[in-house]
Fold:
Amino acid sequence: MAHTHDHAQAHGATANRTRLLVAIAIIGAFLVVQVVGGVLSGSLSLLADAGHMASDLIGLVVALVAATVAARPATDRQTYGYRRAEVLGALVNGVILIVVAVTVLVSAIGRLVSGAEGEAHEVRGGVMLVIAVLGLLANLAAMLVLRAGAEDSINLRGAYLEVLGDLIGSGLVIIAAVVIVTTGFDAADPIASMVIAVLIVPRALMLLRDVMHVLFESAPADTDVAEIREHLLGTAGVVAVHDVHVWQITSGSPVFSAHVEVDADVFESGRAGALLDELGGCLSEHFDVAHSTFQLEPAGRAEKEQPQHP
Structure:
């Protein structure tokens, strides 16, 4: 069962790298168009969106490198392999999102202030609108490519969130362009930029929160440790379970360890091996934990150990 799980993970990792390559091609090709369009139209929001798209491209490349490194096999030195590289890739993506958001916000406020002081910033709404619509389509295509793997990979989730944010940004640029074309209200451009920046921050913080959960080896959000303990205690021969730990190497790769006290009959009858198989099967089948470690102990052993985790 563990072999099947590993094979599925390997297949998923290959598919994720392919998704990232396709998304990089889409975003990279359109980034040039968006920068040129931003310069020609004089639109800060379009340039802000281009900056966000540039961060998308950097983030996607980081995600691809992380996914490639994570696919390397385990060694005697890196006993869990390099899968945590995906988490570090997501961390870089989160930081990039925050930096882009702050930069865009500062630029937008600066333009609004200069506009209030009488310094005009002419924006060609027509050019801005055309480029924004094309950007929306490019981001939509990239988002659809990445969506399939975003649920299982925190690395791909970071890339997906960046492109999703850029999709929303393109929508806001379109709205600003329509306002400028129909009313001549050029301030709609920096206002749209500020909204884009504000929308980026919460998603970046959520991504960084997920990264911190993995790096601090917290139990996965969808894992109920008490429920796992109850399942193990329901196994014939098990008397008590303590020193339970559940953490993740990366998203979708939970690891479990516990000390399991058993009846003396388990050791006397030679059933220890069969019990280990049963306990591992329980976690794999009911909780999708492919890597579990159990230390079988005689009943009452916990009293002789140092203070441990419940």
